[in-house]
Amino acid sequence: MSTKKIIPVLLFAMTVSLVTPVFATDNTSVKTEVPKDVRAKQIESRLVEIRKMDKTNLSASEKKELRKEVKSLKKEARSGGIYLSVGAIIIIILLLILLL
User: Fold this and answer.
1) What digits encode the pLDDT tens for the residues 18-31?
2) Alpha-carbon gap, residue 50 to 63, rounded angstroms
3) pTM exceeding 0.85
4) Is-contact 52 33, C-beta < 8 A?
């Protein structure tokens, strides 16, 4: 066989071998993610529940666990925003000044 016939055959074989595993994957996974607004209401209700608790009967370790839970819930509630550093804000302002 000549090289003119071998090269297209090899390219076709490589292409088929790379594409075939893509079709073999199983994409039947089930997503169990809770929507953000529902989760926010869950967090808010849990924080209200913790605030209303009678903490005088709790031991020190239980109080510590509650504080950790409150911190993690507040952190989760705050996440999802866009954070810009001071340097990024300065660059954006300079670009706006130069462009306008």
Assistant:
1) 665 555 555 565 56
2) 11
3) no
4) no
